[in-house]
Request: fold
Amino acid sequence: MKPVQRVYLREVASGLVLTARHFFVNMGRHLAHALGRTEARGAVTIQYPEERRPYAPRLRSLHRLVRREDGSPRCVACMMCETVCPAHCIYIVAGEHPNPDIEKVCTEFTIDLGKCVFCGYCVEACPEDAIRMDTGILEFSSYSRGGMIYTKETLLSLEPAGPDGKPRSPVPIPADRTP
Ligand code: SF4
Ligand code: SF4
Reply:
């Protein structure tokens, strides 16, 4: 065997030893944790989705529309979010609000989340605090592009995440998955 080959094999063997050492050390820690003897530490894996790391408070998750006390949308259809959105994925139709003190309300409010880049500009631009990205919901998906279009009713039905950052609303079922 040439000297260069000997060096190569030595490096492969040391890599295998290192991997095996991490495997057995982490397995031992997990077993001890499962038996309630120690705190789990060392291993970087968690049992997702049953176990989740706390989300950062500033995390931008699935949007929701904020409601007034009477349940109607707080949105006054000013179109600021639609205008500022760099992905052009917000579609709003304005209508008259039954309350004469409120000039307008959105009769339609749709976000195409297949196009959204989660920049949060819509939240920042809103003068009424009517749209937020604080549901904590990240695992939304669909089988088609149409299923990623979220309507006003869906966005109004969502709740903010709990104090631990975990979602309080179930992940909405997109239209293309409705039985
Ligand atoms: S997060 Fe950004 S891309 Fe998504 S809807 Fe809001 S403004 Fe548009
Ligand atoms: S910026 Fe706020 S109030 Fe204006 S249309 Fe968007 S959500 Fe409604």
